[in-house]
Structures are given as structure tokens and as C-alpha cells.
Amino acid sequence: MVQKWFEEAKLGIFIHYGIYAVNGIAESWSFYNGRISHEDYMKQLDGFTAKNFDAAKWADLIEKSGAKYAVLTTKHHDGVALWDTQYSDLNVVQKTPAKRDLIKEYAEAITKKGIKLGMYYSLIDWSHPDYPSVYEGGKVPEDLSKVNKFSSPVDGVQDEEKWKRFLEFNNNQLKELLTNYGKVDLLWFDGDWERSAEQWNLPEFKHYLQSFNPDIIINSRLQGHGDYKTPEQGIPITRPEGPWEFCTTINSSWGYQPADNEYKSLKQIIRMFCDCITMGGNMLLDIGPMEDGTVDKRQEDILLGLGKWISTHEEAVYNTTEGIHTRYYLGGSTVSKDKKSLYLFVYDDPKECICLKGLSNKINKITVLHSGKELDHEIHGGVPWFNIPGTTWIYMTPEDAHEHVTVLKLELEGELDMYGGSGAVVTHN
Ligand code: GLC
Questions:
Q1: For residues 162 and 318, what is the distance between their CA atoms, to the nearest angstrom?
Q2: Cα(9)–Cα(54) distance, rounded to whole angstroms?
Q3: Are the CB atoms for 213 and 178 separated by under 8 Å?
Q4: How far are the Cα atoms of 29, 78, 155, 197, 280 from residue 34, in angstroms, in the given order?
Q5: Ligand 1 centroid vs 190 CA: distance in angstroms?
Q6: What's the CA-to-centroid distance between 299 and ligand 1, angstroms?
Q7: How far apart (Å, rounded) are the C-alpha atoms in residues 213 and 207?
Q8: Which PANTHER family does the record cross-reference, listed alphabetically (predicted)?
Q9: From the CA of 248, how far away is ligand 1's center (Å)?
Q10: Cα–Cα distance measured from residue 19 to residue 256, given in angstroms and rounded to the nearest whole number
Q11: Over the stretch 262-292, which tens digit does the pLDDT of each residue have?
């Protein structure tokens, strides 16, 4: 079940940290897709030092970004655990020069700041000998030459015993994560697509996880048994049903890839964030730290810039719900919890006025949130005796605009009331 804190959080920071940062290549997929051998991929273990990893610094940056939760890759599809797991020696404590339980340090620092603790855990493990033991849904594919040896048996023979052992292994690792690091608020699964709900032993698996913390929130990647939707990289156009979170990279990579210079600008990131919250969702913004634990300056600057914008516009972000339909206002908006304030997000420089249609309430005051400047408005048209409101024109000049996204606060008489009809013929005057 989704807890209230999640819907109020608005922003989370995703962290893809792992040995793939040593060579600066794609997390796990690089060996799965044959761009590097598994052996060479694993050589990165020797270069993973985490020597400048300072969880308190990360927590500080996350707090400054305005995020209320963090989600760290405890283990990606490559199977390398960032904690001292007893169930496999493929972990950074035993196999890398880092020799530290990074999850312990992360969990402590995040919890200390009052940020909600999230853990990404890959259900699939392309390095575990028991993992490639069955096929998706138990169906042996016709063309065995196309089978990837890291995810399924190449000979067409399934081994249910091995698969059971693998599920046991996942359960054990998850038990460690859920019991050794204080209260975990959110589990972010990934990779459910390689097996069916039945093969993942759902819904029992979910009940097992909830037995450690009944309040835990679980993302959607659990073959229909998750608590909220997780669109990835492509921003939704239609509001997803129920609680949701949009996860996105800052450049084009989840992990640290120095060759990837496809950075989004701060303005674009702020805009994406506004698109999420005005449609009632959260944004989970990813950073990919370098192997030593340092966050690339360009990613750090984005987090700080976003945080600065949020802190200036705090009341339009937190404690609000999704806004009015774009038929009323051609931009984003949010509404205060008491429904007495409407926040209009202005993305472009205004020509003369901002146009708002269908508002039935009287407006008591309009201010530009970042400057406090009061704006004038006029109302034209409307048919009062049919309760059809006129069009509100708010006078705003480019000088009133914020350098990124401007927010106008409309203080209303009573609770927000929008007219949604198709108009009427004015039969008498
Ligand atoms: C995809 C990828 C993975 C990444 C994740 C983040 O599912 O498998 O590499 O961690 O998206 O959402």
C-alpha cells in the first residue's frame, strides 16, 4: 500500500552506484548484450575503491535537492551486492578494494537526515548459477539459439529445484536488507519481466516482504503486485492511474558513463519535475556516482539547482495535489490541500496576459511566488445567472518571470470550483 509520505514527497533521488562505474560502461547490460565478456566486466571489481564515498555528503546533497526519499541500487542485474551479504561472496566487501558495507553507511546517513530510505534490488541476477534455470512463464522457446545464457538455460531443460533455490537466495538477501539497516521505507524492484508472477511466487513473496515491515512501499515492477506505477524515461502524457513515479536520468545513462554528454538542462529538469507534480506524480531523478563515490559536478549542479527552485516555490510543490485540466489553463498547476489556493506554472514568457478559463471562484489576490509581486487581473464575459464563469486575464510581463519556471499563486474565495460545461445560450438579460 502506498503511504501518505510517498504521495507528498514529490521528489526522490535514484542512485545507480556499482562496479560499472569503474570502466564507465552500462550497468549489467554491457555483458548481457555481449559488449564486454562477463569475465572482463567482473574485472571492474578490482578497481572499485569507493575511496571518496561519503554517505553523509550524499545525504546532504539529496536533502538540498528538495527530495524526500532516496533509492540506491543495493544490487543490480550483475549480482554485485553493495553490502556484506552472507549469501554470496559477490559483494563489494569481499571482492573489491572498497571492503566496506556501503549500504550500512548509506542507510545511516539517509535515515539521520529524516529522508525516507529506499532500496533498489534487482530480482534478476545474471551472475548467479541458479538463476538461468527456467524460462519466462516456464515456456521453452522454439528457437534456442536466441536464448541469453545469463537469464535462461540454453539447452531447453528447466530445473525447478535450482529455481526454488534461487528464490530462497533472493528471500535471504532481502531479509538482510530489511532487517539489518533500520526501517526500509521503499523497495524498488527491477527485472520482474524475465519471469511470471507465478514464478516469482506472488503474492506470497509480497506477504513475506511485508512481514518485515507492513508499511513498506513496493514499486510496480512485481508482475502486477506493486503499489505504484513507474514509467521510465518517457514522461506520461495521460496521467497514470493511482500513485505514480517517473524515473529519469539526467543525461542518458543510469550509472556513471563519462562519455555520455547528453545532459538535460536545469530548465528541462525543472520542467519535467513540474510535469510530474502537476499530474499528481513524483519524479525519481537519477545520479550515477563515479567508482570512488564522487558525484559528477554536472549532476550535483542539477540537484542543487532543482533544490533552489523548489525551495523558492515550496508551497506550490509540497502539500499540494495535482492541478486543473489543461483545458482551463495551458500549463501546469497544483492546488493547495485546503483547495483555497491555485498555483499556475508559467513555462514561457508571457506576451501580455495569462489566460485562465472556467474558474468559478472570486480571486482575492494573485502573486508571483518568487518575488511576492501582486498582479492585476480582469474577467471578461461569463453568464452569472447560469453560473458560467468568464475568462480571467492575469496581467504579467516578461520581467515578472522567473528564470526557469514562474509560479503564480491565486488566493481564492472558498474552495476551488471549476466550471466544466459546454456553455449556454444567453436567453435573457
Ligand atoms: C531498467 C534497466 C536498468 C535500470 C532501470 C532503472 O529497467 O534494466 O538498467 O536500472 O531501468 O529504472
A1: 47
A2: 24
A3: yes
A4: 8, 13, 19, 28, 40
A5: 7
A6: 18
A7: 10
A8: ALPHA-L-FUCOSIDASE, ALPHA-L-FUCOSIDASE-RELATED
A9: 10
A10: 10
A11: 999 999 999 999 999 999 999 999 999 999 9
Angstrom CA distances, 152 to 125, 173, 189, 299, stand at: 11, 21, 20, 36
Give the CA distances from residue 232 to residues 25, 111, 236, 317, in Å, rounded to whole numbers and listed in that order. 20, 26, 9, 22
What separation, in Å, do the N-terminal and C-terminal C-alpha atoms of the chain show?
Answer: 54
Give the three cell numbers for residue 237: 502524457
- The reply to whether the predicted model has a pTM over 0.90 is yes
In angstroms, the CA 104 to CA 83 distance is 7
For ligand 1, atom 7, name the residue with the nearest CA.
Answer: 190
Residue ranges around ligand 1 (CB below 6 Å):
16, 27, 29, 190, 232, 247, 254
Query: Which residue CA neighbors atom 4 of ligand 1 most closely?
Result: 254
Phi, psi of 311 (to 5 degrees): -65, -30
Please identify which residue in the block is written with the cell numbers 502506498: 2
For residue 7, give the C-alpha cell. 504521495
CA distances from 370 to 193, 240, 314 (A): 44, 30, 10
Q: Which amino acid is at 345?
A: F
Give the nearest ligand 1 atom to 76 CA: 10
Per residue in 114-146, pLDDT tens? 999 999 999 999 999 999 999 999 999 999 999
By three-state DSSP, how is residue 71 classified? strand
